Amino acid sequence: MFGCLVAGRLVQAAPQQVAEDKFVFDLPDYENINHVVVFMLGTIPFPDGMGGSVYFCYPDQSGMAVWQLLGFVTNEKPSAIFKISGLKSGKGSQHPFGAMNLPQTPTVAQIGISVELLENLAQQTPVASAAVSSVDSFTEFTQKMLDNFYNFASSFAVTQAQMTPNPSEAFIPASVVLKWYENFQRRLTQNPLFWKT
């Protein structure tokens, strides 16, 4: 029913079923994993009114299992990508895997999927840092660079009355920098790769 994918590794399509409504994927060498994709295989849908909450489990320094809610998958949202690299030092949360004695190995984490009512899924709060940005890292970097440049250039702004004559220095009106900034932002939003053409 479920699959799990880590970049550079084979797809896992056979989770370990640990209860009638709970499934677990092992993630060996989890310290080197940044993102994980959990998806439905498309062979068996959830029963009506049901979905799957997705948890990340890693062993803490004492070897105890720490479970954190990442999000969910449903028939309407059959796949999700989660960032797990920043979660390895966070706090655990309530989870449905508590009564189970799942084996923990220091270098192996787990993805757990618990089949639950959709109304219960809607009331759960995932770990905020597990959400993957919808903006790719290049676009995000470029936007932050533009903001930094505009703020830096604006910090040197002076009025015409404050300007002292200096024949060796050229001055650019702040409105020109602002216009360039807005045009670049607009073009980046329309096509993040426009600069390659």
Number of domains: 2
Tell me the β content. 25-35%
Quick one: overall form? elongated
Distance between the termini: 43 Å
Biggest sheet record: 5 strands, antiparallel
Q: Give the helix/strand class.
A: alpha+beta
Global mean pLDDT: 81
- Helical content stands at 10-25%
Strand and helix order: EEEEEEEEHHH
Domain Hikeshi-like C-terminal: 136-196
Pfam family, one: Hikeshi-like_N
InterPro entries: Hikeshi-like_C, Hikeshi-like_N, OPI10
Family: Belongs to the OPI10 family.
Salient structural properties:
single chain; 3 helices; alpha+beta; 3-stranded antiparallel beta sheet; 5-stranded antiparallel beta sheet; 197 residues
Provide a descriptive summary of the structure in words:
The structure is a single chain. With 197 residues, this protein is of the alpha+beta class. It is built from three helices and eight strands. The two termini are 43 Å apart. The longest helix is centred in the C-terminal third of the chain and has 18 residues. The chain folds into two domains: 121 residues, no CATH class; 57 residues. The protein has a five-stranded antiparallel β-sheet with strand order 2-3-8-5-6. Strands 1-4-7 form a three-stranded antiparallel β-sheet, with no helix packed on it. Strand 5 and strand 6 form a beta hairpin. One of its GO terms (biological process) is protein import into nucleus. Forms an asymmetric homodimer; required for binding and nuclear import of HSP70 proteins. Interacts with ATP-bound HSP70 proteins. It is found in: Cytoplasm; Cytoplasm, Cytosol; Nucleus. InterPro entries: Hikeshi-like_C, Hikeshi-like_N, OPI10.
